[in-house]
Write a structure and sequence with these properties.
The complex is a heterodimer of chains A (266) and B (308).
Chain A (H helix, E strand, L loop, with lengths): L1 H19 L7 E5 L3 E4 L6 E9 L11 E8 L2 E12 L2 E14 L2 E5 L3 H4 L2 H6 L13 E3 L5 E2 L3 H17 L3 E5 L2 E4 L3 E8 L6 E11 L2 E14 L1 H12 L1 H25 L1
Parallel strand pairs in A: 2-14, 7-10
Antiparallel strand pairs in A: 1-3, 3-12, 4-7, 4-13, 5-6, 6-8, 8-9, 11-12, 13-14
Helix pairs in contact in A: 5-6
Chain B lengths: L1 E4 L4 E4 H18 L4 H10 L4 H25 L5 H28 L2 H33 L20 E4 L4 E4 L1 H17 L4 H10 L5 H27 L4 H24 L2 H24 L6 E5 L5
Antiparallel strand pairs in B: 1-2, 3-4
The chains are: A alpha+beta (266), B mainly alpha (308).
């Protein structure tokens, strides 16, 4: 039911915006079903609907040559990747590589597989595709905390492991063919937002490719934040840590006293 | 029914957490243990980050130790002076533990350290409890009484300086051993998210030679304050106390403990102790197994905390 209304809404909105858009350079019109995701106590993940329209400037253009790619990226943070090694029979975190800017979330979806959309150099330059994200220059650390140098091949293993772990947590998503065209101009894509998603400012970028070249792109912001009680508790715990801790402890002590009082009654 | 935990930043099943709180609370009421040493590994198994599991569990320990300490206070089975001396050590131990915890988090070895400490303590204590309870069961069957472990002989502990008189415990002894025990247990409490009664009680009986009647009350009295300090420091230093998770654990624990206390009066002590020993032993072995088997992915990722 929800899905149907969303499609309806998307289609109507897309029709309106497409009829209003100027027919000059801008060939792409897009929007998101929501610009804000609120994480409340019942949050178990959600889906964002991205929709839009491609302008057709002249009748010669064939829809077949056009590709639409949608990239949604979350806020970047430093992330440490550690590799375990067996020492005295026990698996211990040994070498570590810290990447300075790793998007907490990255989803890419396209009308056709990326390999046939554009060549790899362009995809890398635009950071399109899970394997083409630039995590920045990493710093390697040994188990004793000393800085070490790592061969490019080894670094590549850590990068692969980072992507693999993020994919396993459903935070990096690759969905070729996830964009569906409704007729010649309208398109839509569903982007999964899992429950363990990091909070912050997200960007949804839609790229329009024509013959393997980017002809237009539009970015829209998406804000994911905790809301209500979740937001209150999180803010409280981080901004007034001492008071938060004291209240938690006093609350627990009170619950303990209550338990003892109840026990005595019986 | 799922609920999103604001600090752990993941959704958990409410019914499952409440059930875990009930079961652990039941066991803690039945055996008079805090239950932290069972709950913290369970939370980590569920995928709660170790720091959040430890920090939140110490809040739950506050609740269960307050319940226990109040009951002992009414029975006048607390040696406040001894408890206070141990608390001095406990405060410094807890601060040291928080510092070690933070250091280990930074170098990426905190999961390993928690697992190793748990494996050591769970297997040793499980094995000790199991042999002890099996011996008690055998003795009960053959109708012979067990010889008491408590003797009046003096040990090296009585040669230490800074002696003090503890009227309630009928002791005149050095303050160094209680401070040292308090320190050690405080440190474990901060790293493991436990009260530490399972180490403190035997230490007080066998090392300090305190009368058994005041041992549990006194240790609970001390645990209330050490775990309260630990919880506050975990929230200040690591922002690792999840109030939502703590609420679920406390509610489950308080209710479970009531039934545990009642069940304990109806069932046979030795068999129950043997049961608890087996649970403890199995958890220890399970954690140990995870340490030695090759992990499915050798690589793991962690967000670098903004403040470090």
């Amino acid at each position: 039911m929800m899905g149907l209304t969303r499609i309806g809404l998307a289609a109507t909105l897309a029709l309106i915006v497409s009829s209003l858009a100027p027919a000059s350079a801008a060939q792409l019109v897009t929007d998101l079903s929501e610009h804000q995701v609120r994480i409340r106590s019942n949050f178990t993940g959600t889906q964002i609907l991205l929709f839009g329209a491609v302008e057709v400037n002249n009748a010669d253009e064939r829809a077949l040559d056009r590709d639409v790619v949608v990239v949604v990226t979350g806020p970047s943070r430093p992330v440490t990747v550690r590799r375990k090694e067996r020492i005295a029979g026990i698996w211990i975190n040994h070498d570590a590589l810290t990447f300075p800017k790793v998007p907490g979330y990255y989803a890419v979806t396209s009308s056709r597989p990326l390999e046939v959309t554009a060549d790899n150099a362009l995809l890398q330059e635009k950071q399109i595709g899970v394997d083409n994200v630039n995590f920045g220059k990493p710093v390697a650390q040994s188990v004793d905390g000393s800085i070490e140098t790592m061969s490019p091949g080894e670094e590549r293993n850590f990068v692969k492991a980072l992507i693999r772990n993020k994919k396993r947590d459903n935070l990096y998503i690759n969905d070729p063919g996830g964009i569906t065209f409704l007729g010649q101009t309208l398109f839509r894509a569903n982007v999964d937002i899992p429950a363990n998603v990091p909070v912050g400012l997200y960007t949804a970028t839609v790229f329009l490719f024509h013959d393997g070249k980017v002809v237009d792109s539009i970015s829209s912001p998406l804000y994911i934040d905790k809301s209500g009680l979740e937001r209150f508790l999180y803010r409280f715990a981080h901004n007034d840590a001492l008071l938060y801790g004291l209240i938690a402890v006093i609350g627990a002590a009170f619950a303990g006293w209550l338990g003892s009082a109840v026990m005595r009654q019986r | 029914m799922q609920i999103y935990l604001p600090i752990a930043e993941l959704p958990v099943n409410v019914i499952m957490i409440l059930a875990m709180g009930l079961v652990v609370g039941f066991l803690s009421g039945m055996f008079g243990v805090g239950g932290g040493f069972l709950m913290t590994p369970l939370l980590i198994f569920l995928g709660i980050p170790p720091a959040v599991a430890v920090g939140t569990q110490s809040t739950q320990v506050v609740a269960s130790s307050v319940t226990g300490a109040l009951a002992h206070w009414r029975n006048a089975s607390i040696d406040f002076k001894m408890g206070g001396i141990m608390l001095v050590g406990g405060v410094f131990g807890s601060i040291t533990g928080i510092y070690i915890f933070r250091l280990l988090t930074q170098i990426g070895q905190v999961d390993l350290m928690i697992s190793v400490i748990y494996v050591i303590f769970l297997t040793i204590i499980g094995a000790m409890m199991l042999t002890e309870s099996l011996r008690a069961i055998m003795a009960a069957r053959s109708g012979k009484a067990l010889p008491s472990n408590r003797g009046g002989q003096h040990s090296w502990i009585h040669g230490l300086p800074f002696k003090m008189r503890f009227r309630r415990s009928k002791l005149y002894t050095s303050v160094i051993p209680p401070i040292a025990i308090g320190y050690f247990v405080g440190m474990l409490s901060a790293i493991m998210g436990v009260g530490g009664g399972f180490i403190m009680v035997p230490a007080m009986i066998y090392l300090l030679r305190m009368p058994t009647s005041v041992v549990i009350g006194t240790s609970l009295f001390q645990i209330v304050f050490v775990s309260a300090l630990t919880a506050v420091m975990h929230s200040v230093e690591n922002q690792a106390v999840d109030a939502m998770l703590a609420l679920l654990l406390v509610v489950g624990g308080v209710i479970g403990a009531q039934y545990g206390v009642r069940a304990a009066t109806k069932l046979q002590g030795e068999q129950l102790r043997a049961m608890l020993a087996i649970i403890v032993l199995v958890m220890g072995l399970r954690l140990g197994w995870d340490l030695v088997t090759p992990p499915t992915d050798l690589y793991s990722i962690t967000d670098v905390a903004p403040h470090s």
